[in-house]
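Lab channel / #folding
Pinned by the channel admin:
"Please post every new chain as: sequence first, then the structure tokens as a reply. Keep commentary short and put observations after the output so the thread stays searchable."

First post following the new format, from NK:
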Amino acid sequence: MKTALIAAIVSAVVASGSAVAATKLIDGHSIQNHTIPAAKLTAAAVAALKGTPVHFTLARGPDVVVPPGSGSGASTGESDALCPNGSYPVGGGFLVTQSFDANAVVVGSSPDTSDGTTADGWDVEIGNLTALGATMPLTFHAWATCESGAGPIKLPGS
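Reply from TO:
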């Protein structure tokens, strides 16, 4: 009987201690941001995380034919690769597709903006320099790598 009474008292003490411990559980307010690694989260918690997906597309500008310059100068041409509506350029470049006996010189390669502040494509200007031996036209087009999901990209200083 004495043993049963001691066991009951021990059980009551252990149960009350568990109840007290349960009231001291950590809630979300006491966790600092970015302090729990993904490996410590359950699959359901990882699935519940939300973010904006970002998608990338390539936009191609029109082919531009640049004749050789006159005298010792250069002729130039510009190709603009415009991103689809709702997407914005994160990079760009060009491809010279025909250049036999031509001499391509990059005059400029930069983000394009239609409104003066928001980048919406990629501009490339190429010269065909006679002074370097160009005797034939060259053909090129611009490319833009466009993203959608992250939002507009404002040009510095705008």
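NK: The radius of gyration is 33 Å.
TO: also worth noting, The longest strand covers residues 88-98.
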